[in-house]
Amino acid sequence: MTQDEPIMHGSTDATDEAKVAGIVEQVRADVRSRDSEDSELLLTQRLDETGIRLPPEEIARLVAEIRG
């Protein structure tokens, strides 16, 4: 499932790199506020929702970054 509407003005102007950075920050905040959240699952779900495909090694790197 993806969110197609409403779309904020300018949101489609972001590069994939900027979108990934934003998703990582969202996931980091969610994991901190809810200890039971699985950061890898949440990250892959959010990336799927935005249509961004990353190789497994990049997912692993981002998860390690989120877990800090």
Features:
single chain; 68 residues; mainly alpha
Please describe the topology of this protein.
Elements: H1 16-33, H2 39-50, H3 56-67
What's a quick, concise take on this entry?
The protein is mainly alpha-helical.
Write structural notes for this entry.
The chain has helices at 16-33, 39-50, 56-67. The protein is mostly helical and 68 residues long. Helix 1 (16-33) runs antiparallel to helix 2 (39-50) and helix 2 packs across helix 3. The termini are far apart. The model has no long low-confidence stretch (mean pLDDT 84).
Cα-atom radius of gyration: 12 Å
| Total beta strand runs | 0
**Total count of helical runs of at least 4 residues:** 3
Main beta sheet, described? none
Strand content: under 5%
Order of helices and strands: HHH
How would you classify the helix and strand content by structural class?
mainly alpha
Contiguous uncertain segments of 5+ residues: none
The level of helicity is: 55-70%
The backbone outline, from C-alpha atoms, is: globular
Report, as a whole number of angstroms, the end-to-end distance.
Answer: 29 Å
